[in-house]
Design goal:
The protein has 425 residues and is an alpha+beta fold. The chain is built from 11 helices and 24 strands. Helices cover 28% and strands 30% of the residues.
């Protein structure tokens, strides 16, 4: 299966904001880097509250990626139970560099401060909001930050022994501090947030799950068309390889990779004989699989700047370049107020009522296909899947289905569009 990217649906709102949904295929072993790209960013000196001690996000990044110390993935990181307000502990899945971004220092009336991009999401009294939406933040002449609304931000304090319950604190001031190196963290669920400088902040595509595919099909895929590195970098300190192995060394490395594939297949077959469920044993095969995701966004500039760069991992760069080419070749179609962007609906399904179209689209985004895993198109199964997702609160597929907003401001992850997820939540 080759690298690929195709536009599933390309829409433009009455306010001129473009919303594009892509289907992208690349090796699964770069899925983490793809999924952890964030437009939302925190300054490198932001403190993360690992108990019993804090660590800056920059230091965590260096330890995680550059071998400057232990990765320490099991360190307990403070997170907020959004239902009860209690603080519990989660764990880091990944930490990513988000590039140089305009940054603002947000100060609360209790003295807590954080430096962040304008689009990072914070838990406020009104729910999850981007900073710029929560307070109406604008950068005026002379780089003076102004805001038009007051807000109360969820906080946990900065003292290690402080009570493990969130509270809300009023905004004191916002100051533009220039362009800063920024980072973000991905944490384990069920609540995708963490405590940073005392603020409760969010780590914010849909992705095919290996758990849903029969093991026999996955084995066939990795035997006939295994995903492999595009190039074999020569070992050195740091995240990126600047040199590659010569032809003979690369051929030897490829043979070792394929032997590892053969070992994984053999172990998967043994577990299958032991009647182990595919949600466990399919994980063994994942490094050798091609992977398909659905991704929808209004903002692409930062992603392409980082992922099309020569310093990006070759496999993620190959996918990102194809994504950019697909978007450049596409022409968005206008969507009026009250109409909806519904990816994966087919041309002959326009007669379905609006609510059915929305639900079917959300379910298909979750499945990453308009077909079931049996290769059939079945509206009834789509609607059943939608209902299970809604009841179980697996709501990320609902983010791809959106309607134009009356303005061009940010609403959750999109500018100028309101996601179906917002009304479900």
């Amino acid at each position: 299966m080759p690298y690929s990217a195709r536009v599933l649906l390309d829409s433009v709102s009455p306010n001129g904001v473009r919303l594009t949904t892509l289907e992208v295929t690349f090796p699964r072993f770069v899925l983490a880097e793809f999924n952890t790209h964030r437009a939302f960013c925190l300054d490198g000196e932001t403190k993360l509250y690992f108990d019993p001690f804090p660590l800056t996000i920059r230091t965590l990044y260096e330890r995680w990626h550059d071998g400057a110390g232990p990765r320490q993935p099991a360190m307990p990181l403070r997170s907020c139970n959004e239902e009860t307000g209690e603080i519990y502990h989660t764990h880091v899945r990944d930490v990513t560099y988000s590039g140089d971004r305009p940054a603002f220092r947000v100060s609360l009336r209790n003295g807590q401060q954080i430096v962040t991009s304008a689009d990072h999401r914070f838990l406020t009294r009104a729910g999850w909001e981007r900073l710029e939406d929560a307070v109406g933040l604008r950068l005026g002449p002379g780089n003076v930050a102004t805001w038009t609304r007051e807000a109360e931000f969820a906080a946990n304090g900065v003292v290690v022994k402080q009570t493990l319950v969130r509270h809300f604190v009023e905004l004191e001031s916002i100051e533009y501090v220039g362009v800063r190196e920024t980072f973000d963290v991905e944490v384990e669920g069920p609540y995708h947030n963490f405590v940073a400088d005392g603020f409760i902040v969010h780590n914010s595509r849909n992705s095919a799950s290996s758990r849903a595919i029969p093991t026999a099909k996955l084995i066939e895929r990795v035997e006939n068309d295994p995903a492999m590195p595009l190039e074999w970098g020569r070992n050195k300190a740091g995240m990126s390889a600047s040199d590659v192995l010569d032809e003979a060394e690369a051929a030897a490395a490829a043979r070792v990779w394929l032997r590892a594939r053969d070992d994984a297949v053999a172990r998967a077959r043994e577990l299958l004989d032991l009647n182990v469920h595919k949600q466990e044993l399919n994980r063994i095969l994942e490094p050798f699989l091609w992977h398909t995701v659905i991704v929808t966004a209004t903002e692409w500039e930062n992603f392409f700047e980082l992922r099309c760069s020569s310093s990006a991992q070759p496999e993620i760069r190959a996918a990102a370049v194809r994504m950019r080419e697909a978007i450049d070749a596409s022409r968005p179609q206008p969507v009026a107020l009250g109409e909806w962007h519904t990816p994966l609906l087919q041309d002959d399904e326009g007669a379905l009522d609006l609510e059915t179209r929305r639900r079917v689209s959300a379910a298909r985004c979750a499945r990453v296909s308009y077909l079931t895993h049996e290769g059939k198109r079945e509206i009834a199964k789509d609607l059943d899947l939608y209902e299970r997702l809604r009841q179980d609160r697996h709501l990320s597929p609902f983010e791809h289905v959106a309607t134009p907003a009356p303005d061009a401001a940010f609403h959750a992850n999109f500018r100028g569009w309101i996601q179906m997820r917002a009304e479900v939540e």
